[in-house]
Design brief:
Length: 189
């Protein structure tokens, strides 16, 4: 049974509803005292829009910032979301791909990518890691870490943007196809 235009609207809202289910509402963030200085930013409706473009760009911004070995990744992601007018909460949430559990692995991989790009031998970890070892090796590690992080961030950011847009388009086409088959079955009865 076809529900007409209402069914048509819900078919295309599926990815949108799925994403909106997990994102906070603007009112929720407005109520936080610590975010008062950002009320003008949080209140911008363009930064809460859930569309193929805004979600794809939010993935690009969030994952790009997640792979940067810098403090304040969430602020950088919020600024990037504001610049590109993409979904702010999604961009900021994706920064948490690099959290205290995943950060050592992610940044080790970006460091290894950097050593490969610079064609330099990687530093090996000692048996007993200490702050002194890290402080003495920091100057040698940083160029490879920053280059590897930047290249990986650009690559993963752009790839995620393209994949999200393709998956969104595929979902719409699949929904159309499913709806068309349902209509044909109903007409055959």
């Amino acid at each position: 049974m076809d529900n007409g235009p209402c069914h048509f609207a819900t078919t295309f809202a599926m990815p949108r509803r799925l994403i909106q289910r997990y994102l906070p509402a603007p009112e929720t963030l407005h109520s936080h005292k610590s975010l008062r200085f950002m009320r003008h930013l949080i209140g911008n409706p363009l930064l809460w829009q859930v569309s193929r473009q805004s979600v794809g760009n939010a993935f690009m911004v969030g994952l790009f910032c997640a792979l940067l070995p810098i403090p304040g990744q969430m602020l950088v992601a919020a600024f990037g979301a504001w610049l590109l007018r993409c979904n702010l909460p999604l961009a900021v949430a994706l920064v948490w791909v690099t959290n205290p559990l995943t950060m050592p692995v992610v940044f080790y991989m970006t460091y290894m990518a950097g050593t490969w790009l610079l064609n330099t031998p990687p530093r090996h970890m000692p048996d007993h890691l200490s702050a002194q070892w890290f402080a003495t090796q920091l100057a040698d590690i940083m160029p490879a870490l920053f280059l590897g992080s930047l290249v990986c961030a650009i690559t993963i950011g752009l790839t995620s943007n393209i994949l999200i847009r393709l998956l969104w388009r595929w979902h719409i086409m699949w929904s159309w196809h499913r709806r068309q088959k349902r209509r044909q079955r109903n007409q055959a009865k």
